[in-house]
């Protein structure tokens, strides 16, 4: 899936465009594959690799925190299987706010996911993270927990939870995403 940069927050989208152009000028084509991500997709990603007990507990915490809409979304997406992708529940990722972008490194027309392989002395993900930081963006590849090399986000709190309550996040998700797309 290709990410549409025009759907991102305008200021952040402009920085992302500059980031991609700079990476290209340095010899690494970074291809946007996910920008704005609705809370249903975020719920699917979060539920991957989580036990039924973890999911049930998260739904209860959300309901108890005034985030009933987000709890419903987390419940309704159903069982998901796969490797861990994110620690962020729906609404707690800047993707839902238009302030995050994921890209993959394109090498010879093929997505390259290695963070150690180099082509002409360059690793696309390392360059992407370095250039993101030069633009005052946060690079997910520098995180301590889940290293998310394809991810960049606007500078500021690592999560909306560091700025808003669950009830406030819930209200914003209702406003931004009034029904399942």
From TrEMBL:
Gene3D superfamilies: 3.30.1380.10
Domain (Peptidase M15C): residue spans on this chain: 92-153
InterPro entries with a match to the protein in the record: Peptidase_M15C (IPR039561), Zn_M74/Hedgehog-like (IPR009045)
MF-aspect GO terms: carboxypeptidase activity
Domain of life: Bacteria
Keywords, sorted A to Z: Carboxypeptidase, Hydrolase, Protease
The protein, known as: D-alanyl-D-alanine carboxypeptidase
Organism listed in the record: Kaistia soli DSM 19436
Lineage per the UniProt record: Bacteria, Pseudomonadati, Pseudomonadota, Alphaproteobacteria, Hyphomicrobiales
